[in-house]
Structures are given as C-alpha cells and as structure tokens.
Design brief:
The protein is an all-alpha fold. Helix content is 65%, strand content 0%.
C-alpha cells in the first residue's frame, strides 16, 4: 500500500457513526455481509498492490460487527459502548492497513489484536480511577482481575491468600492486586449535586468549609494587613519630604498615578532626576520593611 493511501484510509471510509443512535448503528453494521476467504484475499491484494480505498472500505465494513462484539466485553469500565466501538474501529482500520493475506491468517484473527489494543489504550487514558496501570504486568492485571475474581464464586473482596494467588498468576505483587481491586470496585462520588436533586438534598461540597472565612484565619489576615499597613507608613516616614511625595504620587495615589514629567515640572527638575529619586526611595523603603 502506498503511504498516501495508508495515511488517508481512516478519512476516506464513510462508515456509520456509533456516536449517534447506537442501536441503529449496530443494525446497520450487522447488515454488511461477511466475506468469503477468496473475496477477502482479493480485496486485501487490491489494497496492498494498488492502495485501493474501496477495497479497504469493504474490508472494514464487513468486520464492524467484530468491533461491536469486542467492545461489548469492556462495558464494565464505566465508558460508553459507542466510544469503545469508535476506538475499536480505529484499531480495525490499522489492522486492515497492515493485513497481508499471504500469511495465511484471516483478517478476523489478525484484527482482534489491533482492536483490543486500541480499546485498551482508550480505557487506560480515560477511565476515571486507573492511574497505576503503566507496566505490561499492571495492564494485564487491570484487564484480567475481574474475570479471575469470577473464579472465586460468591466472593466480593479477595482474601489475602486469594490476592496472592492472583498476583502469582499475573506476575505482579499482591499489594498491587489489592490496590487495583479497590480501584475497580470503587465508585465516583459527585462533589456537586445534580440539578434534579431536591432542595433538601446536600452534596459533599455543602459540607466543605471555606477556610477563608474561618474566624481564626480572618483575624490572622486582618492582623497581617494591619502590620503591613503600619510597616508601609513607617517606611514612608523614613523618607525626606520630596521622596515621600514622589512615592505617594507614583505608587499610592487613589486615582491615576502621576507621571515622571508631571513631577519633574512640580519640582523643577528633569524627569530622569525624578526617576532616580524614586528608585533610591523605593530601595530605602525595602530596607526599612525588611528590618
């Protein structure tokens, strides 16, 4: 397949979108006929030899039902089925681009790896609780823990011995099994309430105090502001009259600050001289405030 045909494949396939009516999408996908081995080989050879996008499209459409079936197996992670299908479709298109019928393997078997890999990446990036599945072993734990727990019938939480057994089978630490189980069985709690909640309902945010208005904090802030104000006036008192006037006009005026030229005209000196006096006065004030 040429590079141009390969890079434009995903943009050239007018497929039904799972993001709309999911049931309608599934019905449409199931209407696309399955391909015989001979037809599949013919389409794949056309795609590889000539970059035939129509052949690629037919290969993808005939395997949409496979993506739907695989995506259904990942519904327990709290993500929308439609989103999982869309990600799986990306994996399917990647598989079609790389499929070589000369290897003697049907596309359905070859595509399963790419579809699952794309769905796995999507779940790990978007699932609200998982942040630890970074190594290959941890990813294996994440995607296999639920099925392994099912072997222990009637068990909601693994015992220490059971966690050690699962850890040994998956090549991870028992502590990682316990942590992942906690994440998988946990549930998100909305900080803010729903608009549909009644007036008497309280969300967690209603129980959180605003530290800014805590009485001790307010007194401390008021005292700090008072000390800062006293320090500022003390530093101003340490300046000569002209320097104090320049600093007040430039930095403490309630309205618009005076310009260097306005103060230069007031004192009969150059604007540069006013700037020098201002700089020296501010340096002196910093020293007095730091003392």
């Amino acid at each position: 397949m040429t590079h141009t045909a390969s890079s434009s494949l995903s943009m050239s396939l007018p497929m039904p979108l799972a993001a709309g009516n999911l049931e309608a999408y599934i019905q449409t996908a199931n209407r696309y006929p399955l391909l015989s081995e001979e037809k599949e080989r013919e389409l794949a050879e056309r795609l590889r030899a000539h970059g035939d996008v129509d052949a690629a499209r037919e290969l993808v459409l005939s395997h949409l039902r496979l993506v739907i079936s695989i995506a259904r197996g990942y519904l327990g992670y709290g993500l929308a089925h439609a989103d999982l299908i869309q990600e799986g479709n990306i994996g399917l298109m990647k598989a079609v681009k790389r499929f070589d019928p000369a290897r003697g393997v049907r596309l359905v078997s070859f595509a399963m790896h790419w579809i699952k890999a794309e769905i796995h990446e999507y779940i790990l990036k978007n699932w609200r609780l998982v942040k630890v599945a970074t190594t290959k072993a941890q990813r294996k734990l994440f995607f296999n823990l639920r099925s392994l727990k099912a072997e222990y019938e009637g068990v909601d939480t693994l015992s220490v011995q059971q966690a050690e057994e699962v850890a040994q089978r998956l090549g991870v630490k028992a502590e990682e099994v316990v942590e992942m189980e906690t994440r998988l069985t946990g549930r998100d709690l909305a900080l803010e309430g729903s608009p549909d909640d009644g007036e008497e309902a309280f969300a967690p945010i209603d129980y959180l105090a605003d530290a800014r208005y805590e009485p001790v904090r307010m007194l401390e802030n008021k005292a700090a502001a008072h000390l800062q104000q006293e320090g500022l006036y003390g530093a101003l008192a340490g300046l000569d009259a002209r320097s104090r006037r320049i600093v007040e006009a430039r930095w403490l005026a309630e309205g618009e600050a005076a310009t260097l030229h306005e103060l230069a005209a007031e004192f009969g000196v150059s604007a540069e001289r006013i700037r020098q006096i201002e700089t020296k006065a501010l340096q002196k004030m910093r020293g007095l405030l730091a003392a």
